[in-house]
Design a protein that fits this description.
Elements lengths: L8 E6 L4 E6 L7 H11 L5 E5 L5 H9 L4 E6 L2 H13 L6 E5 L2 H4 L8 E4 L15 H7 L6 H12 L3 E7 L3 H10 L3 E9 L6 E9 L6 E2 L4 E2 L9 H8 L9
Parallel strand pairs: 3-4, 3-6, 4-5, 6-7, 8-10, 8-11
Antiparallel strand pairs: 1-2, 7-9, 8-9
Helix pairs in contact: 1-2
Length: about 250
């Protein structure tokens, strides 16, 4: 079997060439949810953040590109992906601003100082749910083999202090995500839905919660990706082009 570090790679451009990302051609590859997460975290204007499950490093790199004063740590448990993330940090000139740390966030998160925000694109499926990819790198990125969503949120809560926890989840699993927030002891949550067009069911939800705050759930205006003619909306283009969003989560 080919070792992950010896796999064929692709060199992909983000933000009109402003960010370059090496990825394994047959391993885990980022998609729209990664740039969506970076864009929504940027609303908070953090100076210091921590990413859980960094993969190839794309979210932290996109966030640092949008926010010139940002610095942070990016945790990744898979050695093959952590190595890619380190290379991507160097090749994008971010070595002084992003540190890639390899290990399990449930036990290693305390090795960094409390950030303003912890963010993640967690595995969407619990152990035993659905059909896992035969590719180990993809399977571990999409199935919760290294901690449930609740455990990841609990680790984020321990680390973040009074800051925010932000993550993306499939729209069809919004209820699971909200329940996990409550079980982890987070509160003051908001859910921003992402829809393909006006009136469509959400493709994704971006959830923001804190360790303290008012009870209840806020639902800001959704992000609509296509207009009535089928073209990309300004909001959609801002996400894929890395245009800094308005401040605030609502």
């Amino acid at each position: 079997m080919t070792a992950p570090e010896d796999q064929e790679r692709t060199d992909d451009a983000m933000y009109r060439g402003g960010v370059r990302i090496l990825q394994h051609r047959r391993g885990y590859r980022f998609s729209f949810d990664a740039v969506l997460l970076a864009h929504e975290v940027a609303r908070l204007r953090p100076a210091h953040g921590v990413e859980f499950g960094a993969g190839s490093g794309v979210v932290s790199l996109c966030l640092a590109t949008m926010l010139p004063d940002y610095r942070g740590e990016a945790f990744e448990i898979q050695p093959s992906l952590a190595q890619l993330a380190r290379e991507n940090v160097v090749r994008n000139g971010m070595s002084e601003r992003i540190a890639v740390l390899e290990g399990d966030v449930r036990s290693l998160a305390e090795m960094v100082e409390a950030p303003e925000v912890v963010f993640m694109n967690p595995p969407y499926f619990g152990a035993g749910e659905g059909t896992a990819s035969p590719n180990r790198e993809r399977a571990l990125a999409r199935h919760q083999a290294n901690g449930s969503l609740v455990e990841l949120l609990q680790a984020a809560k321990r680390l973040v202090g009074g800051g925010a926890v932000v993550f993306v989840y499939p729209g069809a699993r919004e209820g699971i995500a909200i329940a996990a927030i409550k079980e982890a002891g987070l509160q003051g949550a908001s859910v921003r839905r992402v829809v393909a067009s006006e009136g469509a069911a959400p493709s994704f939800v971006v959830l923001t919660a804190r360790t303290q705050g008012a009870a209840g759930l806020r639902v800001p205006e959704p992000i609509v990706l296509a207009d009535a003619s089928g073209g990309a909306t300004a909001a959609h283009l801002a996400i894929v082009d890395g245009l800094l969003p308005a401040a605030g989560v609502d």
